[in-house]
Inverse folding.
């Protein structure tokens, strides 16, 4: 009897076959894992004194920030933080 690789209805025929892809080591779905990881990240950020700021920019500005961050060997977030810090410090100097 020929065995079709895509036929998974009779699992006993495929018990010895190796499955391709990442082995499932976590009982939770990928969505649940991502949600838990995000919550843990937010808790770490709060513990480190970080606050979240979210805003929308044009695609041209987004690409320019990416390019400048790459050239400066920084993340986009680090670059934006440096720009904001520079502006806030300039504002205090002129007051």
């Amino acid at each position: 009897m020929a065995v079709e690789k895509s036929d998974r209805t009779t699992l006993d025929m495929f018990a010895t076959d190796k499955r391709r892809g990442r082995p499932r080591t976590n009982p939770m779905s990928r969505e649940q894992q991502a949600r838990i990881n995000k919550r843990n990240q937010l808790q770490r950020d709060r513990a480190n004194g970080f606050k979240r700021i979210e805003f929308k920019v044009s695609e041209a500005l987004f690409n320019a920030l990416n390019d400048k961050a790459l050239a400066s060997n920084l993340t986009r977030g680090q670059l934006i933080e440096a720009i904001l810090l520079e502006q806030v410090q300039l504002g205090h100097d002129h007051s």
Remarks:
- The mean pLDDT is 84.
- The longest helix spans residues 30-47.
- The helical segments are 30-47, 59-71, 76-93.
